[in-house]
């Protein structure tokens, strides 16, 4: 994974903007839109733990999903799209690399299937990438979940699932990165 450790939760408001951005990048994925959304939240609030911080961010993401504002919807799309595609060869985030490690040695047919499913997903849900908390699940289970979500073809529900998955991932990462 990475040698980065999350600072004590009580210190977050007193950290620099760059240090708060590093926290967001380690819990979620690097996203200027997430930084912009969360900077005031992290600067102005003291949280009891990282789970509470993630929950607060989740509520803000849900607000964006429910907003009628085009700029809010675009911000959410930018944030949700910050996660790498499942099975991508080049993944920038050390956390995502580790989380997807079990998906990196598939059969060639599975690699092609995942690539096709990613393309179909992104055609079904323009502007989104499939986000799921892998958490040890096999590639076949992930593909079944992706197919179910594509078949459902409900954009609002998909945004909600992506938000929930991002926050599940963030909570899992927090547990591993707490100093």
From TrEMBL:
Annotated segments matching region Disordered: 91-112
GO biological process terms on file: purine nucleobase metabolic process
Full protein name: Oxo-4-hydroxy-4-carboxy-5-ureidoimidazoline decarboxylase domain-containing protein
Gene3D superfamilies to which the protein is assigned, alphabetical: Oxo-4-hydroxy-4-carboxy-5-ureidoimidazoline decarboxylase (1.10.3330.10)
Entries under InterPro entries matching the protein: OHCU_decarboxylase, OHCU_decarboxylase_sf
Tagged with keyword Lipoprotein: no
Domain of life: Eukaryota
Species of provenance: Ramalina farinacea
Coiled-coil region list: none
Low complexity bias locations: 93-102
Keyword Oxidoreductase: no
Signal peptide start and end residues: none
Annotated keywords: Purine metabolism
All residue ranges annotated as the Oxo-4-hydroxy-4-carboxy-5-ureidoimidazoline decarboxylase domain in the record: 14-174
Classification via Pfam families: OHCU_decarbox
